[in-house]
Structures are given as C-alpha cells and as structure tokens.
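User: Show me a protein chain along with its predicted structure.
Assistant: Here is one chain, sequence first, then structure tokens.
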Amino acid sequence: MRERNSRAHVIGVVGGRIDPALLYDVAASADEDGQLSFRDALVTEPSATHTHADAVTVTADGAVDPDALLDLLKHPPAGVYRMKGVLAVRERSSPRIFIVNVVGSSIDISRGAPPAASPHCLVAIGLHLDTDGVRRRLADALRPVDGPASATAIRRLRRYVTRQ
C-alpha cells in the first residue's frame, strides 16, 4: 500500500472486523474508550508532522493467571487502543502459550508455540499514555503464578480463544 500511495493511512484489523465509523462520516455523541478513531489517526497537532503513538512493553517471567490477564485485556489502561504479545498462561498442571491481540474492544487469543529467542511479553500501544501507570498495570497482570488456575478462569479464557 505504501509503495502505491505513500500518503495512504493504513488501519490494522483483526478477523476483517472494522468499526463502520472508520468508513463513514458519522458524528459520535460520545467518544468510546479504547478505540482509535479514523479522525484521531489523521488529525495532528499544529506543530506536529504526524500523530505519535506511545508503546509500553512488559516481559513475563513465568505463567500468568488467566483471570488477571483477561481483566487487563477487557479493561485496558487509559489511552491504550492496541495490545499484543505472546504469553504463557497457567491452565491445569502446565502452562500453555497464547498469542494475544487486542484492538479497541476486540480481543483475539489463539494457541501458539513458544517464541524461539524472545521472552514472553505484552506490548500496549496508545496515545498520550501515562507510561509508568500502563507499565504497572501490565506488570501486575503478568505477575507469575504458581499452581493451576481455577476451572472458572480456564473456561473464561477459552471463551476468547479463536483457534484451538
């Protein structure tokens, strides 16, 4: 796309799902938290040449609790519109690897293979982030846990897993 039109704005989507407000000129009565609008992607400050997103990366040293992870994904820190990563999640007796993708309110989790040379981590991307606050929220959710997760936590996680 960039080769054909260097001025084109590219917006990533998951599973072909896109907010219709990105395609149509719809006046919103209130801004929705967690979703970067097309207008926000295009609008720049007068002195800036382009919109700059902040990114915060936190690594995980072990398997994380599925409840803590899902709470973070469903209720991201203020300003975060995208999260992605590869994590070990504590299920029954052993951890399983999951690939996590969040765009706005869309959560996609799939089973994955362990990364070859990189640690498990989660990246949060957004505009005007309190990076220290975002880092704390991510670190709290990615705190390693010992022992198996509850059956309720496992069922809750599996509702979001798109590929087994």
